[in-house]
């Protein structure tokens, strides 16, 4: 966590210094809150959850057996679930060219109690029709998820029913049950917002996003594909305006 905090501070300082020297370059810090749906599509039988199934099935030997399908139904296994999201981002862009970079330090789609860090680079910009206080945004590009600390056991636990979840979280904590906690993604964001303040150096807005997991399934079968809505407050760290 200390390394991530150092990275964010470094990005902020470098971006601010660059923005001060180049009036066409700007960096904005955002405070975000919202929610997302994780579409992980895990093949649970191929995970170590199979060991939990075998352990539970022991008590059913004298009752005609216990199938995997019954286990899935009884424990409410599902391939998607929602979580609240919150965190920070540092957004760097150019006024003349529709290119951007966005560093995110957000809570994990698998658990709001864990964090994740990612970098997105691509094309997009904000559009202010007729110089109004309102603007629209469209951004898309490649997203590198460096690490999601919630991915794995938290993903599986939150994929069970509420009753099963309360019991599982007391004992189920294997290391990397779904494989690597990083990935490559295709990211798309659309939104709208409003500039606030006489200096026009801050804005509030709402955006919807979709992040498609492009990671090869030979590296990790379960998907990190996510869709969500984000409410934000952003302010300019350099002497520029929205």
Topology:
Layout: H1 2-21, E1 25-39, H2 49-57, H3 68-74, E2 80-94, E3 99-107, E4 115-127, E5 134-148, H4 153-157, H5 162-168, E6 183-196, E7 202-213, E8 225-236
Antiparallel strand pairs: 1-2, 1-8, 2-3, 3-4, 4-5, 5-6, 6-7, 7-8
General description of the model:
It is a single chain. Helices cover 20% and strands 43% of the residues. With 242 residues, the protein is of the alpha+beta class. Strands 1-2-3-4-5-6-7-8 form an eight-stranded antiparallel barrel. It has one domain: Porin (Beta Barrel). The two termini are 31 Å apart.
Give a quick precis of the structure.
This protein has helices spanning 2-21, 49-57, 68-74, 153-157, 162-168, and strands at residues 25-39, 80-94, 99-107, 115-127, 134-148, 183-196, 202-213, 225-236. With 242 residues, the protein is of the alpha+beta class. The chain is elongated.
